[in-house]
């Protein structure tokens, strides 16, 4: 189960620097963490989770395998992308394939790095990209409405549902609001997702600041954070230059460097974690002497579907899951201690997996 976050932004905002730091960090961890470059602009990175190390230490696991997020470095956007300007068509197609958007905005002053619009205004930059995505969605919706007209007239249920959702999205867009502002009921969620509207995707704003502002941010990043809060979006402050430097250091050197800069953790860890949370994802663990492994599932996933993330046969033949809460696993020093303490539960098909659960699945082959 792959989850893709597209990194977007205007030219010269630090987007590629951030992506390069992400992929170099992942490559440096390759001895312990899975990483692969699927294409030159696609990379998978480990989601930082200190709980995995704790579990592995208790179980004496030989290998640690974290869960992963995929980041896609999408071609820089310019005004007119919705009409094919620059690499507009490619840009829009790549976003459509992503689950969420990490929007890098320039929050630093640097006379040596030219801004495409000749000024530093991250909120306006964000609005430029949002406008292009909204225009592209409006054009796409109008074409789709024409394409399903005959089926709607014929009473096709799926077409009728699709038309209703498309018109709801179009109304929001015409009023200056992105498609994500539309309230979608549970029965419509699958059909809504299938529309793949660009502005329906959740957004994480990545405020790229100078090295000196990495710890506290600045007025530019605060303006972006205010905008994000008003939109119900997320925002993270980082310095792409610092992240690039850290990505080239050994672990101990990187920790010392962060301490000197007054930073508790790498900005990339915050970006990865925020992207994970943005998609309403959570983690469960499988733990044993061979490996301790983290698995990604959406919030609200039932036990059989969680098992299916490991292998389809686990879901099809699901019988039950032996379940230990993370806190109980740690407090009672592992699986046997949890069993002896009455903290291992047997859960059936109706169990909703909780974040941090340590699971063992029983199934029929």
Describe the structure.
The strands form three sheets. This protein has a seven-stranded mixed beta sheet with strand order 2-3-5-1-6-7-8, with helices on both faces. A three-stranded mixed beta sheet has the order 4-10-9, sandwiched between helices. Strands 12-11-13 form a three-stranded antiparallel beta sheet. It is flat, with a radius of gyration of 23 Å. Helix content is 42%, strand content 19%. The protein has 365 residues and is of the alpha/beta class. The chain has helices spanning 15-28, 50-59, 88-96, 122-147, 149-153, 157-174, 189-194, 219-231, 240-246, 251-260, 267-278, 303-310, 312-316, 326-331, 335-340, and strands spanning 4-8, 37-39, 42-46, 63-65, 68-73, 100-106, 203-208, 234-238, 281-287, 291-298, 318-324, 345-347, 358-363. It is built from 15 helices and 13 strands.
Topology, please?
Blueprint: E1 4-8, H1 15-28, E2 37-39, E3 42-46, H2 50-59, E4 63-65, E5 68-73, H3 88-96, E6 100-106, H4 122-147, H5 149-153, H6 157-174, H7 189-194, E7 203-208, H8 219-231, E8 234-238, H9 240-246, H10 251-260, H11 267-278, E9 281-287, E10 291-298, H12 303-310, H13 312-316, E11 318-324, H14 326-331, H15 335-340, E12 345-347, E13 358-363
Parallel strand pairs: 1-5, 1-6, 4-10, 6-7, 7-8
Antiparallel strand pairs: 2-3, 3-5, 9-10, 11-12, 11-13
Helix pairs in contact: 1-9, 4-6
**Numbering strands along the chain, what is their spatial order in the largest sheet?**
2-3-5-1-6-7-8
Based on DSSP secondary structure assignment, what is the total number of beta strands? 13
Decide which structural class fits the backbone. alpha/beta
Low-confidence stretches: 26-38
Overall pLDDT level: 86
Rg measurement, Å: 23 Å
Strand percent estimate: 15-25%
Quickly count the helices. 15
**Apparent shape:** flat
Helix content: 40-55%
Distance between the termini: 21 Å
Biggest sheet descriptor: 7 strands, mixed
Compressed to H and E, one letter per element, the order equals EHEEHEEHEHHHHEHEHHHEEHHEHHEE
